[in-house]
Amino acid sequence: MDKRAHEVLGIGEGASEREVRRAYRALLFDLEDNGQSDPEYLDKKERLESAFHECLEKAQSNQDPDESKSALENVQADPEAIRKKLGIRLAIGLFIVAAIILAYGYVNNWIQYGGGESHTDTAGMIAALETVGNTTKLVVFKADGTKIDVPGYTPGVTDRDPAWRPDGDRLLFVSTRGDGNFNVYRWNPKGGLPELRSQGGRSKANLYFGSTNDAATRDNALLTSGGFVLQYNQKTAQMTQLLPPSARKTEGGSAEEGTGSISQMESLYKQIGTGFIRAVWGKGRTSVWTIMATDNGQALVYQPLEFEQGPDGKQTLAKPFRLIDAEKIQFSLDSEGRLFAVTTGPTKMDLNRTVGYADKFSAEVTERTQKAHLDTLPDAERAVASSAIEDQVRLSLKKVEEAVSTAQIYVVGVPGPGGPVIQPLVGLSGAGRVFSEPAASPTDDRVALVLTQIDPKTNKPSKGIVIFSPSSAPMGVVEGDVGDPSWSPDGKRLLFTMRVPPDGNRAVYEADLVSQKLNRISQSGDFSAPVFSPQVPSSSR
Hints:
This protein is an alpha+beta fold.
């Protein structure tokens, strides 16, 4: 019978008491789990207990009697009590594991974002892209001019779109590091490898945080992906489709796919353009300025982030304003929320939102109507004469419209209740002049622009950087083959790149606008897109 009992438990005849108890417990638990549905449950349980007692007696023959008795009593205790005891132990173990995971997340969050965040002093640092063959890699210049390569770069990888977090403690950028897709990475300039902060196969581009540094909003940036505008949270790495508004709100990875039912707003945006190229927050993050791709070029669109009550009584997002259409549009916002836009090629705009144009049209119609003494004409002739007057006024204002559309630089005022108003800067336009790369000051109403002028005699271009303010005349900063203007956070210095001999590479320069001195930052290499950390050095405060 001993052999049969050991077979029931699945153990050898020389098994120890511990092995007997372990085998019995395992089989008992299995039997209990399936007992209610097994018609032979009682019979199997009886055979199992009988085999257990026989095997245990044999195993105890070589052990201390008291010890064997204690073990037997423990095992023969209520199986349900044993199950509960093990269940409690399992629950405690899982709780400990969960606590460890939560503690790790909390500590990591504390270090990265919370009150215990390891602050990184980046005041005076400059992030830039260095050209390496056909790609670019992210580098940082320290305040003393020392260049630091952001670690983790490998040949063939492309870094782009550097953007400092508003507090300056972290530097974010888009790169093909990892799986080869353009995803968002975050780096602490204190050291270590950049960490991946987004997922998905669609390319991300044009990271924009703005200057808001309050704890509630500093983590939220805008980016474009797949023709959509996404709101991106660098703390949680989550992305949500913002524009066009989707009828079904989506989050995380699904949002970047632009899923959701087609809403009325989505349909409206499809009438404007084929996709979003760039987007930035308006003042106070109550609006978004965007550039959309169109069939004939690009369109500047302003989207208030406020809701209106529709005819059906439902709350819907306010309609967008399509302000300017051109072959190419570049823009930048100043500290007060004014937008400086620069256009290339034939330009059209909403003339009803152009300063002075609609008013002048109305005034001339009124004046000519009064002079025509329409009230003296028969009713049949009055309508014809009135229409003719309006046609004459339109023709007379055609030159104004042409000047407006060739201004190249436009200031869009801080939008009020009636929406944005466009002010063309006609005086700065002219044959052979092209403005590009506007960069608005973070402290006042100045804007830096790259000015390219064509010499009518030699037909050769000359370039330079000028600073313009609606309240003062333009000021020249530097002449040369320049580009990429960018301001310091205190508005006292201006970064730019300039090609230098003998190799023609672009070096990073800094113009001190107070002392009017130039300082070369990079000593070798080819660079673009330099941008200051938003932290202000103590000497400048």
